[in-house]
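Hello, quick one for you while I still have it in my head. No rush at all, and the record is pasted right below.
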Amino acid sequence: MLNKIFKLEANNTTISKEILGGVITFFSFCYVLFVNPEILANSETSQQALYTGTILCAIASTIIMTIIANKPLAMAPAMGLNSVLAITICQGLDFSYSQSLALSIISAILFLILTLTKLRIKILQILPNYLVKAIGIGIGLFICMVGLVNSHLLVASPSTLVTLGNFNDPATLTVLCSLIIIIVLTVLKVKGSIIITLVATLAISLLLKVIYHEPLGYTGIFSLPTAPYVTGFITGFSSLGSADIANLIIAIFTLTFLAIFNSLGSIILTKYSLNLTEDKILNRVMLADSLAFFTSGFLGTSPSCILAETMTGVKEGARTGFANIITILLLILALFLSPLLSLIGMEVTSSILIMIGVSMLADLKFIDFSNVKEAIPAFFAILFMPLTYSIINGICFSVISLTIISLVTYDKTKNFKENIHPLLLLLSLIFIIYYILLLI
């Protein structure tokens, strides 16, 4: 029955691989469930309501992806978009939180229109193959950076910007031990290396906290969820008419723009593993992604998109929506197990995220760094994502640099489209406008 519904054999996978992939995906992004409410904290609703909204949004979004596309692409409120909503939209442009939810729904409508017109697929198709690979590598290193920062293995430094963390910190020691475990298991090709590492790291984390006399943070196992802020967008729409028109345009443009390219990055990351090279399959993934955008506004949280962390489950062998079912079941449990899950610090999954970055470096062989026309856009894609802590910056700078190179090396013997695709030129102009708006 499962094979018939999820087409397991056709996707060269098994039930055990899907279950393992779904479990790994959940634990790779479960830190979002706790961090997202902290970033979005505001006077209109409680963090408990935001926690519930984050989980329900993840459940609803991932269900949509499962039904429409049957791909193991978990969705949830995205890190980065939540900061934009809280800092840029609410603080910078002076919108209330409820108004930002209304703006999110308006952006979702535009996002859906862009998907139905297949503009998003065209954007992916005009990018040269080496740049697609470079973006994938950049996202891998971005995930790696998330792991390094979450574990305190890398910390800020006033003199060198970043430096090694304090080895007396239990979190740092935990990830060092975890890295040794996952490296050994990976090199020895032990099956289930990620889940073994996860369990072992959790045990090490709790043990080190006991040794260093740090509080475990244990407050119980079960907790009834608080109702999400479902009336927020209604309140937001009722007061949106009095908002400044210029700020409205900037806010909607920013949310829509970031949604398009956050998801594009995750799609590129899993493009070959999940056979997203076929337009029919890619259309379904993008449609599911755009429909899922609506759920966040209705549930009182920041916009959802395909999570880059979903690559951990794909690496473990997940190929169909059955892996999503496992992730969804764990998310449902998370609604009632928040005290227990809070024991799992971000350092527990950090080594897994770091190893994803290592594995993505294999695609460097597809980039000709001796050709400066390829090397420069690839450089921006690969390094700007982790160093600026933003997938969007890497994509923007790589596309802008590619456009500049195409213009200065213009071949008059060829027609305009052969030199530079008009859509690529338009994208570059949009990216430049985006950065100008950030300066306003």
